[in-house]
């Protein structure tokens, strides 16, 4: 990541994580980024924009959803500040329980929330948040405007991004196995690192052999 930035290759991070977690992963860099599937976005100008739920409604959902999850030990509830996540990675048998809960809340609060399934998680995000739409927005702003978008991702939540990148004539790259709308595929995170190394060499930058900074930022 550092080397791409140093080579003046415009980079934006689009993730399901909150912006503060994205920044912690790439510190001391601070790049254009979208967190929580596009519910919050920081442009190249540094300005942060958020899709926020009404505070009263948010608190109501938080309390009710936390209580519902507490009835199922092993089902982890995460308050992301402007969205919610139900994690069942540690107890896979709770997948259908998590799905049922998430679907019920998405239906009950359908005017403000949408359901976003992911890897071992069901997320409830503000209506209007989309990795695809936030990529489209980035591509309309400097320094990305007029360039060919390249988007890599390994999660179901990245499919909306692949769809938009395909529409824009860019490169959509699925990391790992599974059905996808992406037009290209890399087998693993290590393969991503090798591919980025070749990209850097192609623009005249020689990546350090042991630099793994580009290999850890492929998660959704």
UniProtKB/TrEMBL annotation:
GO BP, sorted A to Z: trehalose biosynthetic process
Example of a GO MF term: trehalose-phosphatase activity
Matches recorded under InterPro entries: HAD-like_sf (IPR036412), HAD-SF_hydro_IIB (IPR006379), HAD_sf (IPR023214), OTSB-like (IPR044651), Trehalose_PPase (IPR003337)
EC number: 3.1.3.12
UniProt cross-references to PANTHER family, sorted A to Z: TREHALOSE 6-PHOSPHATE PHOSPHATASE (PTHR43768:SF3)
Pathway where this protein functions: Glycan biosynthesis; trehalose biosynthesis
Cofactor: Mg(2+)
Pfam families on file: Trehalose_PPase
Family as reported in the entry's similarity comment: Belongs to the trehalose phosphatase family.
Function noted in UniProt: Removes the phosphate from trehalose 6-phosphate to produce free trehalose.
Protein's UniProt name: Trehalose 6-phosphate phosphatase
Gene3D superfamilies from the UniProt entry: HAD superfamily/HAD-like, Trehalose-6-phosphate phosphatase related protein, domain 2
Domain of life from the UniProt record: Bacteria
Record's keyword terms, sorted: Hydrolase, Magnesium, Metal-binding
Organism in which the protein naturally occurs: Pseudomonas saudiphocaensis
Catalyzed reactions: alpha,alpha-trehalose 6-phosphate + H2O = alpha,alpha-trehalose + phosphate
């Amino acid at each position: 990541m550092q080397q791409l930035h140093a080579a003046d290759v415009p980079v934006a991070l689009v993730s399901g994580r909150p912006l503060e977690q994205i920044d912690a992963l790439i510190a001391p860099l601070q790049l254009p980024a979208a967190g929580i599937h596009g519910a919050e976005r920081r442009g190249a100008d540094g300005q942060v924009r958020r899709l926020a739920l009404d505070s009263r409604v948010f608190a109501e959902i938080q309390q009710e959803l936390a209580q519902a999850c507490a009835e199922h030990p092993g089902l982890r509830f995460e308050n992301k500040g402007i969205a919610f996540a139900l994690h069942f990675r540690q107890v896979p048998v709770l997948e259908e329980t998590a799905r049922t809960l998430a679907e019920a809340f998405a239906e009950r609060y359908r005017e403000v929330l949408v359901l976003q399934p992911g890897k071992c998680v069901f997320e409830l995000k503000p209506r209007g948040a989309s990795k695809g739409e936030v990529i489209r927005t980035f591509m309309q702003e400097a320094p990305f405007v007029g360039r060919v978008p390249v988007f890599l991702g390994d999660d179901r939540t990245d499919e909306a991004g692949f769809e938009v990148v395909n529409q824009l004539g860019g490169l959509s790259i699925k990391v790992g196995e599974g059905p996808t709308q992406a037009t290209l595929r890399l087998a693993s995170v290590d393969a991503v690192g090798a591919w980025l190394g070749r990209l850097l060499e192609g623009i005249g930058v020689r990546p350090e052999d042991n630099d793994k900074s580009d290999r850890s930022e492929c998660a959704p």
